[in-house]
Amino acid sequence: MSVQELTSGKLLELYGRMFRIRTVEERLAQVQAAGELPGPVHLYIGQEAVAVGVCAHLSDQDWICSTHRGHGHFLAKSDEIRKLVAEVYGRASGVCGGKGGSMHVADVSKGILGANGIVGGGIALATGAALSAQTRGTRNVAVVFFGDGAANQGVLLESLNVAALWKLPLVLVCENNGFSEFSPTATVTAGEIWKRATPFGIPGEPVDGNDVREVWSAAGEAIERARGGGGATLLEMRTYRLRGHVEAEKSFLAKSYRSDEEVERRREREPLRVALAALRGARIAPDAIAAAEDKERAAVQAAFEYAAAAPWPQPEAAFQHMFA
Amino acid sequence: MAKKRMVQAINEAIAEEMERDPSIIVMGEDVHISPVGDTRGLIERFGAARVRNTPISESVMSGMAVGAAATGLRVICHLFYGNFIYTGFDAIANQAAKLRYMLGGQVKLPILYMAMIGGGRSVAAQHSDSMHPLLMNLGGVKIVMPAAPGDAKGLVKAALRDDNPVFLLQAAGRGGEAGEVPDGDYVIPLGKAEEKRAGDDVTVVALGSMVKPALKACDELAKQGISASLIDPRTVVPMDYDAILGSLRRTGRLVVVDEARKSCSVASEIAATVAERGFHLLKAPIRRVAVEDVAIPYSPVLEKAVIPGHQRIVGAVLEIAGSEGARRHG
Q: Using an 8 Å Cβ cutoff, are B68 and A138 in contact?
């Protein structure tokens, strides 16, 4: 699937979705700093192109599994902004009833098996979802988003092996955002991650993860291959985490693991700027872009107002849902 | 009704359920050839799409089971030796046991994890553990531990119709033993104990592999005039406390026998719960018969020293019931 196939209308749509994610995450940063959230949040700012470019190819019957930095994947595949924000606020009307919080946002009705608090935890789940899609004879696929940190979990090797052996309809999307928690990736990761596909005989590819057009194109090809019975693909999306591993990390870190200059330098090519430049290049009217942004801002504002006012769960709910 | 080995009973139950429900698949190491015997013949009957012979990769297997179960399949995940539960434990503890809860009930996870547990065959510490207490402590998984082929068939069928992760922990040394197995659709509800021997002087609760020595202990005790009520919970989660307390109401004395290490064993849990709920029924202190806090050794002499046999059960009963029971009956 080539970048040229991406229409300017579709590009604007992708930009709108990225803008929505960015707006939610920036607002979460604010309310977290203001002490309004019960727990920690890991923000997706700087990586929006990956979730949006990939999920653009998926239906509600295709499955995704994601990471502790999972708000973006959720918002890329589900329209339930209010339910996501309410979940992060720990409220009863959150998408998981307040049981999961930020690291477990999931909308199963939309094919989102959930964010995951275990680094690499989604890899085996998505492999199973792909096995399920194949065994049931569907043309659905499973996509797992995981970080460069998770690429160093042993389960990735196990998954690549079975996915290759069984030609599973699985797309492994590694988001290399430059950091494994507080360690620069190069200090904890040998070689290049996309090349880890090669020994298993499945396609691997590095992708500019900050350009939604490139993500859309590479993911479209991998997903099409998986749907057609061509098996798994490993995509390494090269991106950059503009926020910390976790919000408010400077309050407990004794020293910094990257310079402010580095972050500012990387901001020049962050995905919204890249997409905006592309929209201008495609001669999308500035008014159309501004209208899309305004629409998203309003929706996000409404979601936060809703969540902040939403009722807390009843304490009895803590004792439900262990078993079906 | 026919006499069958436990592995045959399990095999029969799986095959019947796979016939009944096309969403059931089997995955595991060597399930095509089935060294244990419980999945023998399934690949020929149901094909390689439903019977997946896997690499030795418990991390991905235990998690794949969760992903496949959440998305429309019923999964039998065969982990072979119980100790391999540890190598696949991340997805068991962090996903299988919690995903439904964390997601506020959005998913059902119909998974049957199967493994052989316990010692007695000189396979040493890394193939002889009994990890049902560890699994019980996870909270989100059910556990069945059949001690007889008939129970195995009924419990496997119930487990395969349950919408939750269930562990079938089969006593390693027990697969070859024969027993009566009802024909056809024989289902034992999870959480229902069976009184394998009726008695009035002492309640012996024995789990899984310990039912056999407990039966022998009951025979010995009978010779000494002590009548023991032997309760086989069959299911560890949920535990049938009503059956245990019901027996205790008659006997007032309790011995719990478990092949797990004593610290935090299921015997400990039963003892604690009975102390809370049935203290008024107790005429004597509760006794636990379990493995001391050591690993399971290799040499048969050492292994025998560690794993409870019938004499230790008899000894424990005599400690709390011996004199009075003998007086009453003798």
A: no
Q: Which of A157, A138, A121, A61 is nearest to B49 (CA)?
A: A138
The burial class, CB within 10 Å (0-12 / 13-18 / 19+), for B37 is: middle
Cα separation, A309 vs A75, whole angstroms:
21
Would you identify the CATH topology of the domain B194-329?
A: Rossmann fold (3.40.50)
Catalytic residues of B, by residue number, are 127
Q: Does the beta-carbon distance from B90 to A118 stay under 8 Å?
A: yes
Task: List, in order, residues 6 or more apart from A260 with CB less than 8 Å away.
Answer: none
Substitution target in A132, A166, A200 with the highest count of B β-carbons within 10 Å is A132
- Taking each helix axis as running N to C, give the angle between helix B6-20 and helix B149-160, from 0 to 180 degrees, rounded to the nearest 10: 30
Tell me the CATH architecture of domain B2-181: 3-Layer(aba) Sandwich (3.40)
Q: Write down the ipTM of this complex.
A: 0.96
A130 interaction partners in chain B (CB closer than 8 Å): 67
**Can you list the domains of chain A with their CATH numbers?**
3-310 (3.40.50.970)
Q: What is the pLDDT of residue B177?
A: 80
**What stretch of H or E contains A206?**
strand A204-208
User: For A226-249, what is each residue's pLDDT tens digit?
Assistant: 999 999 999 999 999 999 999 999
